[in-house]
Every structure is written in structure tokens, then in C-alpha cells.
Write a structure and sequence with these properties.
The protein has 373 residues and is of the alpha/beta class. Helices cover 29% and strands 25% of the residues. The protein contains eleven helices and 20 strands. The strands form three sheets. Strands 1, 10, 11, 14, 15, 16, 17, 18, 19 and 20 form a ten-stranded mixed β-sheet that branches. It has an eight-stranded parallel β-barrel with strand order 2-3-4-5-6-7-8-9, surrounded by six helices. Strands 12-13 form a two-stranded antiparallel sheet. Strand 16 and strand 17 form a beta hairpin. Helix 1 crosses helix 3 and helix 10 crosses helix 11. It is elongated and about 80 Å long. Bound molecules: pyridoxal-5'-phosphate. The site of pyridoxal-5'-phosphate (PLP) has 11 residues, from helix 9 and strand 9.
Length: 373
Amino acid sequence: MVVGVHRPTQLVIDRQALRENICAEVNRLEGDCELFMVVKANGYGHGAIQVAQAAKDAGASGFCVAILDEALELRAAGFNEPILILGVTEPADAPLMAREKISATVAATDWLIDADRYLALAKEDQPLRVHLGLDTGMGRIGFRTPATLKTGIDFMGSNADHILFEGIFTHFSTADDPDDAYFKKQVANWQKLVGSLKKRPRYVHVSNSATSLWHAACNDNLVRFGVAGYGLNPSGTAIAEPYPLQPAMSLTSQLVHCKELQPGDSVSYGATYTAQQAEWVGTVPIGYADGYERRLQGFHVLVDGQACEIIGRVCMDQLMVRLPKEYHRGTKVTLVGRDGAAAISLQDIADYCGTIHYEIACGFTSRLPRYYL
Ligand code: PLP
């Protein structure tokens, strides 16, 4: 997809906000605990490379991504820090990950056996760094019992020339929930599994943003810090932030057209909106192809700092808003962020769409240029 640099619609990313959020968390960590910034999905839509640099400047000592290509993007950009891939990779890529010193998450022993064959054939100088994923209740990937975990650890022990047991971790599914009953169950499962280890690897970790913000006692020696680094409360609004998080992402545009409708005139596909009286309507050059969802009909944007309703269906590339008066072409439109006393957050959009701010941030497509403050 081309990047729309000739259109006045853009995401603006505040790197100072990123740095301050991450630095605040680094400063709260105790002992030898490190912070790896999670920059998967293009840094939650904020730009993986720029976020990685801001995170490094703020004290992050490594990165987490979801897929191998995201890790390779960081290496190609010159980042030499540890990188952990959180998802399951292809065993055939084990030699490539070993060469690039990219750590793989391993969820089952058969993966290790397959990867070991590729590593033996490739004769890499470097061993493959492995973090064992434990499924303590997320139900996604990982070892679930001490017996299966032992099989994996024993296999690594007898193939130590190819495989380095670098880390062990789990992921909590309800760390952002005010009700901590299930969280405690997962912690107990984790302790049982980790308690069965004869030797701890270099990294032992359980914490995403929510765990580190609200259950920091669990952190051990590494935090996988994602959404809070971007300035977003992992719980939405359910639990108060222990320190103020600063949202790093804004989305702005301009009016490209303004007209006065007469009673009975309709707007957009399906003619779902019809003016009841004479009213001014502006057109904003953004639509669902940019990740600004069609479901946002009836929501609002800020025009010149005032909330204006989105009327009619959101089109692929344009949407229309009802204005309090005539405005010039070029008037500023804020779709996410602050204008004067008014603000629209990713959480407001997520609430309207019935989803979470993570999905809204990641959903903005590459057609939107990202500008960095
Ligand atoms: N760790 C794992 C395994 C994840 O899957 C994720 C995100 O999905 C994170 C850490 C970061 O989570 P958050 O963005 O909530 O901090």
C-alpha cells in the first residue's frame, strides 16, 4: 500500500511520551529486572523502528516481537540488543534465528527436535537461544505439565551445542482485571512449573504491562512491556494507572470540502442520513481503508476543537461531519488526540466500536504516514 504523503491525514507519534512512559517503568523495576519493549505489529501501529529507538533511549535493554520478520526488521535497522519472538516460528528458520541471535519461543519438544535437525545441518557457530513458553492458563501456546517441560529441558541439555536454554516465561490472561482470582490461579500454576526446574535460565519472566503495573511482585528478572509504553492503560478504564501514562499517538487531518445541505438532502452510501434543516457539512479525507472503522458512523471528530458528529456511512477514503458553521477548507480535524480543551482517546474510539484500544492502534494502515515529534 502506498503511503499517503500528499493528503493532509497523518498519525503523529510523540517520542517524548514514549520515552517518558518507558523510563517511568524502568525506574520502578527492582533489582536486576530488565525491560524488553514489545514492538510487534509495527510497534502497535506506532512504527517499530522509531519505538525501538525511543525505548532503547529510555532504558529498555531488549525487544519482543511476534514474528521472525519483525525481528529481522530490527536487526536490519542496526539493533543488536536481545530480541525475543513471542510466537511460534518455523523450525526450518532455527539456523537463521541462531545466526541473527534472535531468541525463539518454544512451546513443545517436537519443535526442538525438528529445529535441532536444521541446526545440525546448517552448522551455525551460534546456538539457537530458546525461551520455553509455559501455558499456565492462557490456553494459547506452551508446556502445561512438569513432565512435558522436563522432556523439553532434557532435550536441550543433551543438544546444548545447538540450543541454549536462555529463558522461561508465561503470559497471564487476566492481569488487567480487577478480579484477581484467575490471575492467582495462573501464578500458582507458574510456581509449580518453575519450581520443578533444576536450574534457572538467564531470563525468567511473566509480566506484560498489566502485570508489571499492578502485580510487580511477580516480575522476576524481565518485563515484556507493551501497551503501557505507548501510553495506554492496559485495563481500558477498569483499574487506575499507578502513574500517569501519556498516549503517544494522535491522528489529524483537515477539511477538504465544506457545503451547506438543505432539508431533505442526504449524505453518503445508503443515504442513511438526511438533513432535517439547513446545516453545514465537512468532508474529511480518511476512511476504513486507513483503519478508521466503518462502525464509527455516529461517533465524532474535533473540528477546530469542537466535537462534530460523523454523519452517514464512513466511506473507504472519506467521511462527512456535521459542522456548527461554515469552515474553510484546510481547517484542522483531530480524530485522535487533543485540540484545546477537547480530546478524543483511542479508548473513546474503542468503546464506541466495542473493542479495545490495542485493536484500534494496530488497525491504522500503512496508507497513513507516521510523523515523529
Ligand atoms: N507478552 C506476550 C506473550 C504478549 O503476547 C504480549 C502482547 O500481546 C505482551 C507481552 C505485551 O502485552 P501488553 O501490550 O499488554 O503489555
